[in-house]
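[Archive record]
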Amino acid sequence: EDLSDQLPPGKTLADLGLGERPFGPADRAVRLVEWASFPADYFCQQMGAHGDKLYFGIKRGEILEYALDGTPSILPFLDVATLRGAAFRDITSNSFSYGLRGFAIHPGYGTDNQLVYTLHTETNTGSADHYITANADFEYVLGEWDLSGGTPSMREVFRIGYPAPSIAHRAQNIGFNPQASPGDADYGNLYACFGDGTSGNAIIDFYGNSQDFSNITAAVIRIFPNDPSAQTDGELAGLGLKRSDNGKYSIPLDNPWVGTSGYAEELYAKGLRNPVSMNFAPDGSPMVGDVGEQAMEEINLIENGGNYGWCLREGTFAFTRSDQTTHDVLEASASLTWVPYGAANDPAYTILFRDKDGLNSSSDTVTRSGADDDGLVYPVAQFTHEGNRTSDGRSAVAAGQYYNGSWAEELEGLYVFGNFTKDTLFYIETKDIVNDDRPADVMRLPLIDENGDSISLQTIIGAERSNMRFGRDRYGNLYLVSKTNYKVYRFQGTPEIALSISSMELPADGKDYPLLSMTHPGPDSTLVYGLESSSDLSFTNVGTGFLEINAVINADATVERSYRYLTPFEDEAQQFFRSTVTGPLMLSVVDGSFENPPGTGN
């Protein structure tokens, strides 16, 4: 939709931070370096991390495990399709919303348990715990897998039936709060995303699920998925939980609508259209990429009890279906009206509406006294389809990840996300991830190739639609996987390097030999690390014949590299050193000095 006619007089899309976004400054530019790859038709739905491994949930039913150096395990971590046999349903490789939709490794995996959860499609049994409509053609199953034995076994947590005509907007990603520790109120609670059940090419929410709080569609739910069968209701209450209706999981008592008649108690937040992707904010709150209908794509910070407005709102626009002056019925393609940001002492703002069938005109008065206070939660980031659509008119947001790693200092303090139908990467400042009803300023992330020249994601992927997903390892480094070329990329820029200088006394002669230690990210064959020395700041390479060099790869995929001189420095009053990193780009130099007597250098 062209939103120009829907804006207030004198306002443009640029005034609202919308339209095609400008690139961020050049010092934000990073490379995407190929890190791993999958076989053809391995469509990745979700990435995850646990310990020093990265995991990839593949639509056809496998969860793949990779070491942080990009080396895959020989066998899948979990093969849901094989273990479930004929019950598992994937249909075809290009069908929306089938197969493995999401997975989550329990935060206590490897210490307290060996539990893994999957959300996947299975053949209709007619015995779902939640039915959206009576004509479901297949069901989504949340399964709890115990990997402690020889063959993984699945316990069914719940089963949901979605309407048969729908091909999209169904179950999506799942996950645990990565910031919650044992003893925290949110530890062990599982979040899961569900769409409104509407077909991908349908206008609005024709099932009316998005504002129907009696069902778990168009929502993020939160449950405690562990089997409660061995606990009494009183014991569960003491843990802040209550037993679910099917008795196979528990519901946190601090979920927003627990005990409210007519409301699904599993609900944590409502009013989402198609929350395709979910990751987590620095504080552990879910971050959801909600794919829009007419014009807006949203990144939402999910809060307890939040109503994110679909289908009353799309981003910071209202779905009015009504001309704001004449009150004539508007077609869906021209039905959005800007909801202005509030400022102190602004007058009330009235929006005219019609029902989705064009009948029953009504109005909604929004009080403008600062941040929007109409009871809805607005995106922390959004972009419009204007300037961001593909050649076939599509646009779709992918929730990203925040960076605090060691491979790309350029991304420090940023949350990176994307438009996976047009191969565009965006970012906002991490500090702006806050629900103040004012979306953050969105910028495009500049990419460079190995020569430092500007390059597009489309060129890297080799197609206009990358269908990207994002992930981060436990050390804060960012990754992007494409469902188009089946490759995984790591965001790389200037790696963080630590250099320390000490000395080593050898018993043979009692003399001190300089010992230099460098820790850097790795391994990466495109980067070459070296050592230079000088007594007067005129640095030259130290020949390897003068050094004993050792390199050890740590569990976090960093490399500790030590350099020990084979001869002592007995004549120099002071010696300077620096470590260099070279590759396709000159990346970094770290300085240090060594003085006689040892121990006085830096």
